[in-house]
Design goal:
CATH superfamily of the largest domain: Thiolase/Chalcone synthase
CATH architecture of the largest domain: 3-Layer(aba) Sandwich
Bound molecules: coenzyme A
CATH topology of the largest domain: Peroxisomal Thiolase, Chain A, domain 1
Largest sheet: 5 strands, mixed
Shape: globular
Length: about 325
C-alpha cells in the first residue's frame, strides 16, 4: 500500500511586506536581501493566526481532494509557532473543520516539519491503521523573530500549506529519508516562552529566533544533496528522471548549490521564496500547492521533496504524482 497526495491547499496572510518596506524600519536594503537570498517580499500576519491560516489551507486542500471532513482519520501539523501550548494547532483545525473522526496532533521538526508529518502519516497508512490524513505545515514566524537582528528577521515569513493524503494501491511515495543532528541544534534556536516559575530567574537570551546563518548554510548545502541522493537511490530513480525538486524555500543560493551538486538544471527547482520568504514547516506544502495550481503536476510525474532546518533536521522523499 502506498500513500498518495490527492489534494493541496495553502493560505498566506493578506499583509505583504517588501524588502523596501523593511528598509524603512531597519538598516537593510532590497539589494542586500535579494542578492543574498532571492527574497523580495513576504507575507506577515496581522489578523491571521497559525490556526486560522491552517484551517483555510486545510479547507482548500480538502476541496481540491474532494474529501469531506468526516473522512479524515488523522491530522498532523508541523509548526514551531502554534498559537497555544495546548490545545495543539492540529486540534484547533480539527474543531474548525469538523473532522470529528480524526486523531490530531502537532509535531516540531522546524523547517522539516511537513516532511516529518508526511512520513508519520505514511507509516500509519502503510500499517493499515489510518486511510486518509490531512498534513499541514503552518507558521506565524513573525511573532518569534528578533526584529533587532536584521541578519535573521528579513529571511522569514508567515503562512500555511496543507495536503490530503490517502492509501492507494498503485501510486504515491516511493521512498523517504529522514535525519536529525541535535548536537548542532543551537545554530538555529529560539525559546519563545520564558520560564514563568517565580522561583527561577530567567534570562531573556535566546527568547526569539537566533541563527548562525553561515553554519546553517554549510549544513544545508551538504545535508540536502546527501539526503536527496539517498532517497533517489532507495526509490531506484536517477536525478535526471525527476520532473521537479520541491525544496524547502530558505535561500536561492542553497537551491542553486543543491541543483549544481545533483547536476540537475535549476529549471527543475520551482521557487516561492521570492514572494514568501522562508516559512519553515509551511514552505514545502505552499510550494507544492502553487505547483499544483499552476498545472505543473501531471499524473505519473516523479517529484522529489526536501525539507531542512532547525533541530537540526532534514527529510526528503520521492513521490509519484
Ligand atoms: N541588511 C544589510 N546588511 C546586513 C543584513 C541585512 N539584513 N544582515 C546582515 N548584514 C551585514 C552584516 O552585518 C555583515 O556586515 P559586516 O561585514 O559589516 O559585519 C554583512 O552584512 C555580511 O553578513 P554575513 O552574515 O557574513 O552575510 P552572509 O553572506 O553570510 O549572508 C545569510 C547571510 C543569512 C543570507 C546567509 O548566511 C544564509 O543564507 N544562511 C542560511 C540561512 C538560512 O537559510 N536559514 C534557514 C534554514 S532553514
Amino acid at each position: 500500500m502506498k500513500t498518495r497526495i490527492i489534494g493541496t491547499g495553502s493560505c498566506l496572510p493578506a499583509n505583504v511586506v517588501t524588502n523596501d518596506d523593511l528598509s524603512k524600519i531597519m538598516d537593510t536594503s532590497d539589494e542586500w536581501i535579494s542578492s543574498r537570498t532571492g527574497i523580495r517580499e513576504r507575507h506577515l500576519a496581522k489578523e491571521e493566526t497559525t490556526a486560522s491560516m491552517s484551517v483555510e489551507a486545510a479547507k482548500r486542500a480538502m476541496e481540491n481532494a474532494g474529501v469531506t471532513a468526516e473522512e479524515i482519520d488523522l491530522i498532523i501539523l508541523g509548526t514551531v509557532s502554534a498559537d497555544y501550548v495546548t490545545p495543539s494547532c492540529a486540534c484547533e483545525v480539527q474543531a474548525a473543520i469538523g473532522a470529528k473522526n480524526a486523531v490530531a496532533f502537532d509535531i516540531n521538526a522546524a523547517c522539516s516539519g511537513f516532511m516529518f508529518a508526511l512520513h508519520i502519516a505514511n507509516a500509519y497508512i502503510q500499517s493499515g491503521i489510518y486511510r486518509t490524513a490531512l498534513i499541514i505545515g503552518a507558521e506565524t514566524l513573525s511573532k518569534i523573530m528578533d526584529w533587532n537582528d536584521r541578519s535573521t528577521c528579513v529571511l522569514f515569513g508567515d503562512g500555511a500549506g496543507a495536503a490530503v493524503v490517502r492509501a492507494d494501491e498503485n501510486t504515491g511515495f516511493l521512498a523517504f529519508d529522514l535525519g536529525s543532528d541535535g548536537s548542532r541544534g543551537m545554530v538555529l534556536a529560539g525559546l519563545n516562552r520564558t520560564n514563568n516559575n517565580p522561583l527561577v530567574e530567567t534570562s531573556k537570551e535566546l527568547q526569539y529566533v537566533h541563527m548562525d546563518g553561515q553554519e546553517v548554510y554549510k549544513f544545508a548545502v551538504t545535508a540536502v544533496p546527501a539526503s536527496l541522493h539517498k532517497v533517489l537511490e532507495d526509490a531506484g530513480i536517477s536525478a535526471e528522471e525527476i520532473d521537479y525538486f520541491a525544496l524547502h524555500q530558505a535561500n536561492i543560493r542553497i537551491i542553486q548549490s543543491v541543483a549544481k551538486r545533483l547536476k540537475v538544471s535549476e529549471d527543475k527547482f520551482p521557487i516561492s521564496l521570492d514572494h514568501c520568504g522562508n516559512i519553515s514547516a509551511a514552505s514545502v506544502p505552499i510550494l507544492l500547492d502553487e505547483m499544483n495550481k499552476n498545472g505543473l503536476l501531471k499524473p505519473g510525474m516523479k517529484i522529489a521533496l526536501s525539507g531542512f532546518g532547525g533541530g537540526l533536521t532534514w527529510a526528503s522523499a520521492v513521490v509519484e504524482w
